[in-house]
Amino acid sequence: MSRKFGAPLAASLVCATLLASAPVAAQSTGDWPSRNITLVAPQPPGGGFDTVARVLADRMRPILGQTIIVENRTGAGTRVGTQSAAKAPADGYTLMIGALSNMALNPGLYDNLPYDPLKDFKLVGMAVTWSYTLVARKDLPMSDLKDVIAFAKANPEKLTFASAGLGSGQHIASAVMARMAGVRMTHVPYRGSQDAYQDILGGRVDLFFDISSAAKSQVDACNVKALAVSSKERQPIHPNVPSVFETGIAPLDMESWFGLFAPAATPEPVLAKLRAAMAQVMAAPDVQELFAKSGGQVPKGSMAEQEAKVRGDIERWTKLIREAGVKGD
Description:
The protein is of the alpha/beta class. The chain contains 12 helices and 9 strands. The chain folds into 2 domains: 165 residues, Bordetella uptake gene, domain 1 (D-Maltodextrin-Binding Protein, domain 2, 3-Layer(aba) Sandwich); 117 residues, 3-Layer(aba) Sandwich (D-Maltodextrin-Binding Protein, domain 2), CATH 3.40.190.10.
C-alpha cells in the first residue's frame, strides 16, 4: 500500500504545505504593517539622527496605522546601529536613519566596515540636508576665509581646528577643505560639539566646521565669527556668509543629508508603501517649515535621482577621505 499511494500522498502533503503557507506570505506583504515598526537611530538622542527619526516616526504613524518606535542603538560611532539594521529581518519592521556620515563617510574612514551601504540597504527616501558652517573664535585676527588660508599657507600647522571627534563630519569638512586649499592645520578632536565650543568660546582653538543648525545660535549671539559654509551655494540661515566654493579657496561641496533606509531584501510592495508614506510626510508644508527653521532643506528629485546622490556621495567621499589621510577612531 505504501508503494501504491506513497507518491500521491507525498504530492498531496506538498500541495497542502504550499497552500497553508500562501496566506502567511500574503500577510507579510499585503497586510503590512500589522504590528509596531522599529526605527533605528545609530546615535544618541538629541542629534541629527534622532531628530529626523522622531519627526518621521511621528508623521508616518497615522499614515501607516502602526506605532513607529525610535530605538537609539549606539556604539562605535554609528557602526553598531547601522550594522544591526543591516542584519535585521527584511520584513519592513526594522528601518534605519541613514546619513552622509554612516553611509558615505564611513566607507572611507574604516577599512573593515561591518556593512555595505549599497548592498545591505535600500533607500526609502531622503528627508533633509544641512550644511556645515566654518566658525572662528571671535578674536581671531583674520576676518575672512581668504585671510585665514593665506595665514595658514605662511604658517603651516599653526592654526588649529576643532572637531566633534576623529572621523566626524566636522573633522572631514576641515581636513578635506585644508587639503584642497593646500594648507596644513592642526586637528584638535573633542568628545562632541559642546566640548569643542567651550574651547572656541574660550579662545583656545581657532576654527570649527560645525553643522549649520548648531552653529547658527553661536553666530547670532556674536560668540563666533562665521567664515564660510560647506555647501556649494549659500545657506538661507546664513545669507551673508559665502560658501567655500564661492570664495575660490577650494571646490568644496558638502552637505550632511539624512534619509530613511530599509534592509536590502525588503519586499517591493512594502517598500512601495513606505515610499508613498514618506513622500506624503516630506511634502507637508509644516514638515518643510520645521526643518527650515534649523537651516535644513528637504531634498528634491525622483527616487532614481536620490539613489544616484547616495551612490555618488559614497564614491566621492571615499576618495576624498583617503586622499586627505583621515581615519576613524
